[in-house]
């Protein structure tokens, strides 16, 4: 049974969010649902990453999250790919600067087993992470 103080705090501040830092980094979802994440520079690079395309075309019950600070011209390739595969997408505008530009995740469930690294680690990834860690 909830205590009166807990009920009042929830009424004033809302329900406490699970893993708020993780949700900020992964554009409102949590790491255990993420199949693949791209950094801002990777999304802006000009080509669709094969890892994203493969997952969109082979997995079901997905959701695509896109960093709202990016210009439409850079992420439109991904929204077209998602629309073609009937994958819903959400544009999330982070309140803080983050290196993540796109996240493809399971819509409702945790992945089993969890993926060790969800990022595509190439030179663009290294540049984004180096710039982000420098701040």
Architecture overview:
The chain is α+β, with helices and mostly antiparallel strands and 135 residues long. Helix content is 41%, strand content 17%. The chain contains six helices and four strands, in the order H-H-E-H-H-E-H-E-E-H. It has a four-stranded mixed β-sheet with strand order 1-4-2-3. Helix 5 (72-84) links the parallel strand 2 and strand 3. The longest helix is centred in the middle third of the chain and has 13 residues, at 72-84. The protein is globular, with a radius of gyration of 17 Å. 24% of the residues are buried.
Please state roughly what percent of the residues sit in beta strands, choosing from under 5%, 5-15%, 15-25%, 25-35%, 35-45% or over 45%. 15-25%
CATH topology: 60s Ribosomal Protein L30, Chain: A
Q: What's the total number of strands?
A: 4
The rough form would be described as globular
Question: Residue-averaged pLDDT, rounded?
Answer: 89
Named CATH architecture: 2-Layer Sandwich
The main sheet orders its strands as 1-4-2-3
State the helicity in percent bands.
40-55%
Low-pLDDT residue intervals, each spanning 5 or more residues = none
The biggest sheet, with number of strands, parallel, antiparallel or mixed sense and barrel status, is:
4 strands, mixed
User: How many domains make up the 3D coordinates?
Assistant: 1
Class by helix and strand content? alpha+beta
Rg over CA atoms: 17 Å
Distance between the termini: 44 Å
User: What's the CATH C level?
Assistant: Alpha Beta
Fourth-level CATH superfamily: Ribosomal protein L30/S12
Helix and strand pattern:
HHEHHEHEEH
What is the overall number of helices?
Answer: 6
* Oligomerization status of the protein chains: single chain
Pfam family, one: DUF1694
Protein name: YueI family protein
InterPro entries: DUF1694, Ribosomal_eL30-like_sf
Organism: Alkalicoccobacillus plakortidis
